[in-house]
Amino acid sequence: MIDIRAELGQIENLAPFPSIVQRILQINGDPESSAKDLSRCIKEDLSLTARILRIVNSAYFGFSRSIGNIEHATVILGFNEVVNIAMALILTRQYPGGRTPMLSRDQFWMHSVATAYVARALSKKARSISAEDAFVAGLLHDIGKVVLDQFFPLELERALTYAKEHDVSMRDAELKLLGIDHCEIGTKIAEHWELPQTLIEAIHHHHDPENGPVESMMPSVTHIANGMCHMYNVGESGTNVVEKTHVYALEKLGLQEDELDTIWDSAHVDEIDLNLYL
Fold it and tell me: CB neighbours of 260 closer than 8 A, spacing ≥ 6?
């Protein structure tokens, strides 16, 4: 059996964080940057520009007049919205087709983008984290599965088959067969990418938020968002078991389980054309 943990050092070098994402995040984090700065960066990539404008002009935003350029979109929607859309589009383009037939990469990214929007909605219940960070955490929570699919397709297929045949979670199947799960793999990649610690914690503990840092709400936000997208069957990430929401995560955000439907409605996931992100 391949020792995936031992191979991760090489994999980290083969899975670079897109440089344009780094530049966009730097612009977004600079209080002196303007809509023009963000627009200038994005416009260097004509394909990305066209895809962003297609989403901005979709029915989800409902503008009566067409928005024709990124700078206008940034002024109307705000920095964070355009940054979030750009990040989702860049990552789905960076890691498009999968090697494992049992895991549709399109369905995977639909699940990830939907989780990002729900996490952003949940962030309103956690004042200590930003809506943008919550969005990125939701978008990247399963990035470890992309690494498995890209570099260990046979091992991933074994885990997917086991999970389906034994009706267990993908994570349980990975731990049993591979000795490592997508959470740990995703954490290694996130550390290599030098992502903020709060995002690393979310990726690491999105299935067991009770084991994350006590002071951090991000694992709980990501955990709940991920579970809701599975519950509402939005996209597919390789598991056929709907994970029960941890009481710890609900208590961390001061939520009751019967409030989750309202959170879901506030995220407006049903109104998003997720195919535009593929």
Answer: 224, 228, 245
